[in-house]
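FW: tagging you since you asked about this chain on Friday. Here's the raw sequence from the shared folder, copied in full. Didn't touch anything.
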Amino acid sequence: MDDELERIWNSSRQKQLVSYHEPALFNELDSKLNEFEMVIKKRDRREITTASIFIPICSIAAFFTTGLTQIGLILACFSCILIIYMLIRGRRHRVENYAVPVETYLIQHKQYLIKQRALLNNVLYWYILPIAISCVLFMVGLNPEKGLKIPLVIVIPINILVYYLNKMAVKKVFDPLIEKISSAINSLNNPNL
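HL: got it, structure written out here
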C-alpha cells in the first residue's frame, strides 16, 4: 500500500509537458503570412493605381491653373510619385525564395514585416504631409477669400484618421505577427523550451 501511494505521489509530481504539433504550427503561421502578403499586395496595388491616375489628372489641371492652385497640383504630382516610390521600395524586402529552410524563411518574413511596419510608422512623412500640403495649397488657391478655414477643417480630420488607422494596424497586425514569427524562430532554435 505504501509503495503504491509513493508511486502515485511521484507520478503526480512529474511535470505535464504541453506538446504541440510543430508542422501544424508552422503551416498555420505560413497561412497567416500568405494571407498578410495578399493584403499588402492589394494595398500596394490600390495605392499605386490611385496615385498613377492622379499624376496625369493633376498634371493636366496644373497646366490650366495658376498661383497656389497650380503649385498644389504640381506638389500633388510629386506626392503621388513619392507614394509610388515608397510602396515599390517596400516590396524589395518581400520573400521570394520559398525553397529555403524553415528558419531562413521565417527570418526573411520577419525582416519583411519589420520593413513594412517601419513604412507604416513613417506614413506621416511620405504620405500624409505631402498630400495634405498639396491639398491645402490647392484649396486655398481655388478660394483665397476663405483662407485656410475650409482646407484645414477638411484635411486635418482625414489625415488624423489615416495616421491613427496606420498606427492601429501596426499595433494590432504587425506587432503580433512579428512576435509569432520570433516565437517560432525561438522554438526552432531551442526545441526544449
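FW: The chain has a mean pLDDT of 85.
HL: agreed, and The chain has six helices and no strands.
FW: great, closing this out.
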